[in-house]
Design a protein that fits this description.
The chain has about 290 residues and is α+β, with helices and mostly antiparallel strands. The chain has 6 helices and 14 strands. The longest helix is centred in the C-terminal third of the chain and has 21 residues.
Length: about 290
């Protein structure tokens, strides 16, 4: 009898403790679920607010090898009790025939974002949202059985901003600013026409001039070889500069952020005695100043 009483008391204590456990869910209601797209030729952002929890952001920046990133911010206390969360793709209540599925586990991060993914893992989250499912992150908040947390990204209102996001990704310029910060364009003899191989770089530079607020100034200097008179070469150097400015302007660049100087045959980078040297001297040099 005594053992039975002890067992009953222990059972009551266990269930009493378990009943105190909280299951906290964070998810935007249908009426407040909103996805916001922001983007240009340099960056693409798709954002979703999870009420009382934080913000989910899908993002990619210009450059061929830039990662497609996802981050979910967390504005409360750090989570230190557990290291991973299980990720599920849940079927909404209005799609009862659609199966939910497991997406595996995701490390819990310290810092501004509690969850971070890139490339394939990010595309998987986008795919679940596109098919109407709710990617959901489940984890234990503290080191006991107290609070279990479930955070969902709502697929409500996702489609149209997602289409805009995809269009933005396809239009991102394929160069990072560091690749354009110092450029030398070569010219044929007595010509100011820009070679086709430089045009993609100049179009990308125009996008940075147009959209990057930290870009201070673009310096464009023009040069020639020593063939011809000095006065003629000064004018030819200026025509080469004007060709660059014209292309940048056509792509929307603000000319007030561009400084130019025509040097003509001054400051050669190679000897003008040989054809190979003269070819190197027929150039426009572009340098970008950027606030870090």
């Amino acid at each position: 009898m005594k053992f039975t009483k002890i067992l009953i008391a222990a059972s009551l204590l266990f269930f009493s403790t378990y009943s105190q456990a909280g299951f906290k869910t964070y998810e935007a209601e249908i009426s407040e679920s909103e996805w916001i797209f922001e983007g240009n030729l340099l960056t693409c952002n798709l954002q979703h607010k999870v009420p009382r929890y934080g913000n989910a952001v899908f993002m990619k920046q210009a450059g061929k090898k830039q990662d497609l990133l996802f981050g979910l911010s967390y504005r409360m206390h750090p989570v230190s009790a557990v290291k991973v969360a299980s990720v599920q793709s849940l079927s909404p209540s209005w799609l009862p025939k659609q199966r939910s599925r497991s997406l595996g586990e995701l490390p819990i991060q310290n810092g501004g974002n509690i969850f971070v993914t890139k490339n394939t893992a990010t595309w998987k989250l986008l795919n679940e949202l596109e098919t109407g499912r709710f990617p959901t992150f489940n984890y234990q908040e503290f080191d006991s059985i107290e609070d279990q947390v479930s955070v969902s990204l709502s697929a409500v209102g996702f489609r149209k901003p997602y289409d805009q996001f995809l269009n933005c990704l396809s239009d991102l310029v394929p160069f990072k600013l560091e690749e354009l910060a110092k450029m030398t364009l070569r010219f044929d003899f007595d010509q100011h026409k820009i070679r086709s191989k430089y045009k993609d770089q100049l179009k990308a530079l125009a996008a940075y001039i147009r959209y990057d607020p930290n870009l201070e100034v673009v310096v464009v200097n023009g040069y020639t070889d020593s063939k011809g008179s000095r006065g003629y070469n000064d004018k030819l150097a200026q025509r080469r500069i004007d060709s660059v400015k014209e292309l940048l302007t056509l792509e929307g660049a603000d000319l007030s952020r561009i400084k130019t100087l025509a040097y003509g045959e001054k400051n050669p980078v190679a000897s003008n005695r040989k054809a190979s040297g003269r070819a190197l001297n027929r150039r426009v040099y572009i340098k970008v100043s950027h606030v870090q």
